[in-house]
Amino acid sequence: MGTEAPGAVAMSTTLGSADGAPQPGIATTAAPTTASSIGGTTAPSNTSLAASSGTKSRGTLTMWSTQEALIGSQCEYANAPVNSLTDPVLPSYLRSGFHCAIGDSSPGFGKGEQCGLCYKVTSLSDDGTAGTPGQRGSAVVMVSNGGAGGDAHFDCILESFQEITGAETGIFDVEFEQVPCDDVTGGPVVINWADQNAYYCKMMFGNIGGWGQLDSVRACLDGSECADMTQHSGATWTGCPTGKGSSMTFELTQRSPAGATSTITCECSDESWPWATGTRCTCPDNFALLENFASKQEDAATEECAEPWAQCGGIGASKGKWNGPICCTEGYSCHSFGEWWASCKPSSWHEHSSPTSPTAGGDTSDAAPDSPAARDVATPKESMSPSAPPEPMRSPLAGGWPAKMPSWLPKPAAGHSVHPWMPTQPGKEGQPMMPEWPPAFGKPFGIPKPAAAEPANP
Fold first, then answer.
1. What gap in Å lies between CA 283 and CA 186, rounded to an integer?
2. What pLDDT, in 10s, does the model give residues 115-130?
3. Does this model's pTM top 0.70?
4. Which positions fall inside the Expansin-like EG45 domain (predicted)?
């Protein structure tokens, strides 16, 4: 770096993985995959982004290497068992050279917490700091490596460096801000990165949309044995529940720069557990953002957030199908169930650890304290609030609807029950009353109130 002659391609000293980054010209072999083709290796679009972190910083930009350096980089995206620069499991940023190594701080690589994040990097001048001629530009890049050294330092692959600076070498002053990874398509892909082992796993979570990284991962074997995983290095995580089973479910949680969280569930049942090395599972949904998500996030601290168990943002919000609150009250986070529904559950909630349909006399100790599951039994274990006494669940046939119900739950039409957790029939403990779908949600699917001489339907 310094005053290299224009046109000379200078490579910086960014380090790869512990095994060492391969030299340019390494032969690569695309791993077999059933994922649909994402098509080509064209550069990600550089259109104006509707959302960003809202924080712009200044730093320096240098040129790292050519595209082959992706294999061996510390985030591990293209390492074995993928061992490819063109595999569709790699987002377009990684396949087209629009990715960079970062330095020690602001942003700092750490053990890989920045892997997959996207930054919009803009050159502040046509010329480099030492007079290298170029043309000021801008590009969105993904973090793929560490080792660039220094503070606020981006060391980018040649294609993205040229897009930002109009040059092939030199040191340039830049402005950067974290932005969503808008060019990620398809769902997240989970890959077994280690040997087939029922007592140890190392999983790669790739093609993460939205803000590009994961804040936490929880894995559940056969829906019952669950464990919170730990980020190991780069974009890989360890700590799956041990043992053998027929399926593994992963709950992926992402946190935005403003602190809002969103969770998606990826159920992998095509292969029994443990998986063979390189086995993949593609999640049905990815993280995404509302067109005006950035402004909503900035207002999240002051706007009215959704109540516990109420509908919130989630995937539907990210696709423009929900314009209500995107945040949840303190202690709760937004959990998505596909693109049509998301609700505020306790931050410690996990789908496979709490029942949602209690049986008569059943234990609800695992249910969230303020959840309908914990309230809708004749003798609830938790009251609806710390200051309110326990109130038994009553069906409309038993003389009325409880006064203290969440605002999001509509009252039923006369003679019907809409409570989705099935209150019991009067005088028949353990025999749930069939609910009817609320009229506001469309055609009724339940059972009307029986005649006085008829017993209630079980």
1. 8
2. 999 999 999 999 999 9
3. no
4. 72-186
